[in-house]
Specification:
By secondary structure, the protein is mostly helical. It has 2 domains: 1-82; 100-236, no CATH class. The protein is 74% helix and 0% strand.
Length: 236
């Protein structure tokens, strides 16, 4: 059976389990306990599907076709369970892996990365569990990295008169300056740090005394973020 067909079948099973769980909550206390257990099983199955989609990416250099398959499977999972925040964050990470680490906000918007990160943050707010806090830390860190790379790109283009048209195109945040975009990045890193993100904490510290960071530092932080999330394998 093709991988995609098997995944869709398992997703249909989790949807039926989710619907039966919701119906059971309309009953008495015993039914509520049964529904809670069913809900836990459903959540475990969703996590299993998510892990299955991400597992092929846990190699040094997964080919684009493998990354795209993971994105498609995460999309199917999101369509079946639109209130599951982790899938949005992981799809954004997979999209970053597919499109490269030098994404600016313009490119990230085109590939729906920023939309996915915003939705992951929305679904985890207000935060009541450790898992939600972990997702927030990762989502804020990812968004901060994209914003910081955008501010760096804006400065580079602003100093090159031959690329003035590109400088206008990259400014997709209204009339904000590179400094303002950088401050937005720092605000996201602070939020990521607040929710326990180690990479976000490091970036917040690095941005505090220095206003301009080179792209290599940002790329290094993004790679570390992907490794911490399990999208890229850990260093030997």
């Amino acid at each position: 059976m093709p991988r995609g067909t098997a995944l869709k079948r398992r997703i249909r099973v989790t949807k039926r389990l989710r619907n039966s769980t919701a119906a059971a909550y309309a009953g008495d206390g015993e039914k509520r306990q049964s529904a809670a257990a069913a809900g836990a099983r459903c959540y475990w199955q969703i996590q299993t599907l998510e892990s299955s989609a991400l597992k092929p990416l846990n190699t040094a250099s997964p080919p684009p076709s493998t990354i795209q398959t993971a994105i498609d499977e995460l999309t199917s999972l999101i369509e079946a369970h639109p209130a599951y925040p982790s899938a949005y964050n992981n799809r954004a990470q997979a999209l970053r892996l597919l499109h490269g680490s030098d994404l600016t906000v313009a490119s990230a918007n085109e590939s729906a990365i920023m939309t996915d990160l915003a939705e992951a943050i929305r679904l985890c707010t207000p935060t009541t569990t450790g898992l939600q806090a972990d997702i927030l830390a990762k989502a804020y860190t990812q968004r901060g990295a994209v914003l910081l790379l955008t501010s760096t790109t804006m400065r580079t283009l602003e100093t090159d008169s031959s690329k003035s048209e590109g400088a206008v195109q990259v400014q997709v945040l209204g009339s904000k300056s590179a400094d303002e975009v950088e401050e937005m990045a720092r605000a996201d890193f602070r939020e990521g740090k607040r929710w326990g993100g180690e990479v976000a904490g490091e970036m917040d510290v690095k941005m505090n005394p220095v206003r301009k960071l080179c792209g290599e530092i940002v790329r290094e932080a993004m790679v570390r973020d992907l490794r911490e999330s399990g999208v890229l394998p850990a260093e030997d």
